[in-house]
Every structure is written in structure tokens, then in C-alpha cells.
Amino acid sequence: MEERNLTCIGCPMGCLLKVTMKDGKVEKIEGNTCKRGAVYGEKEVTNPTRIVTSTVRVLDGQEPVVSVKTASDISKGKIQECMKELKNVQVKAPVTAGMVVLENVAGTGVDVVATKNAC
């Protein structure tokens, strides 16, 4: 049996989780005070994902960059590739919050969107 200790980020409580696995499968999750903790614990040890936040260059705008994020979480293994692709992205002003600045980042099927307006 393998045990992993995690701090849950599913809600503000920050519960200390103990996930017990056998043969790569989750057997038991302990320490969570809500259902989100169990969901987070299982996902974190079997298929960890993250929302990626960054900035991209703005052309012909008052500000040189605009903040962006992935529209949903992507596999942790794809984060480096995502950042490499974002390094080369430039958008022309004006930019509106929610505007897609990069489709299907790193082949994940997830778009990268602006998180604020930029003139």
C-alpha cells in the first residue's frame, strides 16, 4: 500500500488528506471535512490538473501585456508546453475579458482567455 499526504485546495478549509492507494487505485481518503476533499484527493493522485495563469503581449495598446488563463484546468504534464506556446502569443488591442487569445493550447482542447480588458 502507498500513502500520500496532501493539503486539500478544494475549499478554504485546507484539510490535511491522507490518500491510501493499492496497485495505483485509490482505496481510502481520510481527513476531508467535505465531499470536495475526497474528489480533490482522488483526482490529485490519479490525474492532477491545474488552471494556468499568465500574460500575453498586447500590440498597439496602452498596456504592454494582458492577463490570461486557461478556460478550464489542464493536465499538470501539459503546463510547460502551455507556457511555451503562450510565450509567442501577441494580441492586437483592444482586448476584452473572456476573449480567446489561444485555442486548444498544447493540444488539450482548452482555450486560453483574457481575464481583463486592455485598450
Q: What does the model show?
A:
With 119 residues, the chain is of the alpha+beta class. It has helices at 35-46, 79-86; strands at 2-7, 16-22, 25-30, 49-50, 53-59, 65-70, 74-75, 90-92, 100-102, 112-114. A 5-stranded mixed beta sheet has the order 8-5-6-10-9, with no helix packed on it. Strands 1-2-3 form a 3-stranded antiparallel beta sheet, covered by helices on one side. Strand 1 (2-7) and strand 2 (16-22) form a beta hairpin. The longest helix is centred in the middle third of the chain and has 12 residues, at 35-46. The model has no long low-confidence stretch (mean pLDDT 96).
Give the SSE layout:
Layout: E1 2-7, E2 16-22, E3 25-30, H1 35-46, E4 49-50, E5 53-59, E6 65-70, E7 74-75, H2 79-86, E8 90-92, E9 100-102, E10 112-114
Parallel strand pairs: 5-8
Antiparallel strand pairs: 1-2, 2-3, 4-7, 5-6, 6-10, 9-10
